[in-house]
Amino acid sequence: MAHFPYHRVGRHALAWAAFITYEISILFITAAPQRVFWWEYLGFYLLNILLFYFNASLVSADSIRLHRPLWLWLLWLLPLELGLYIVLQYGLELLYNLFRPTPKLLSFQYKFILSYVWRGLYFIGLSGAYSAARHAIANAKTISQLQVQQLQSQKEKAELEKNLVKSQNAYLQAQINPHFLFNTLNFLYNQVIDISPKASEGIFLLSEVMRHALAQLHEDGKAEASRELDHIRNYIALNQLRFQYPLQLSLQAEGALKDLRLPPLLLLTLVENMFRHGDLTDPAFPASVRLWLEEGTLSFQTRNKKRTSCVPGGHRLGLQNARTRLLNAYGPDRQCLNIQQDEHYYTVHLQIQAI
């Protein structure tokens, strides 16, 4: 609901009060004294104010807005306005004569008509100037707003171009020839296989992880679920080599996953969250990763013991990223990511329907 324009009405009332005071003051100074009642001034000025706003709102503003030619306004609208104004003034004089102690002698002749033609043109001219000024101010505001929007668009475009250049530079700096990378890893693997089988296994697993990260995706931007599962296996095996104590972690997969495709690294994000925030070394509270497909619904669950000490930085950032990717890929109705926790365990359960 629009608010009543109190400030605008107040400004107009103040302007009219100053104008009427000025005219009446000039009249008392220059003209011979006449007995005129206050309600006569009130009626005449109300009629003049009505003419002013009628012309400003329905004629001048409409002519400017519709780009009507000036001759059309002068030929049709102006005579109609003046005729109606003169008739109303004459009717007002007749009405006042009913209340005046001494009625005026009225004659609807050229002197009466000419005096009110001039008076009507005076207020029509004022209202026309007012409408033109309002139109000019509105155009100036519109142009100013467009300029601000243009500057904002230019600023955003410059920022996007700047970020694009940064991204391109970062991409070029981070770009590594895959053949060079895998050839190097293969060389290191062959060099250490006889010296340290554990180190060679780590190099092999790292090579497989990097190969998955650099693999091409399908046109829909997704990767095979079986490849994602192999990637999780390699990731877990690589972390088994990193820790001094064996990880108490099991991985299970059920269902026909061969033709199934998922957003890349989505499931790995949930597994990484386990390694970052969970305790995977306690035999009394083993962790588990399960993936199964049942009646067109894919379920993925990670369950791990809660770590007593907090890991600084990036807390739950992986889960937030997973939620965003799921929403973009499947919308709000086809996916659900639930988190449950009790005294010992932290469980993340993902479901994707009609996959």
Automatic annotation (TrEMBL):
Residues 170-244 form the Signal transduction histidine kinase internal region domain. GO terms for molecular function: phosphorelay sensor kinase activity. The chain crosses the membrane at residues 12-32, 38-58, 70-92, 112-133. Keywords: Coiled coil, Membrane, Transmembrane, Transmembrane helix. One of its GO terms (cellular component) is membrane. InterPro entries: Bact_2-comp_sensor_kinase (IPR050640), Sig_transdc_His_kin_internal (IPR010559). This is Signal transduction histidine kinase internal region domain-containing protein. The lineage of its organism: Bacteria, Pseudomonadati, Bacteroidota, Cytophagia, Cytophagales.
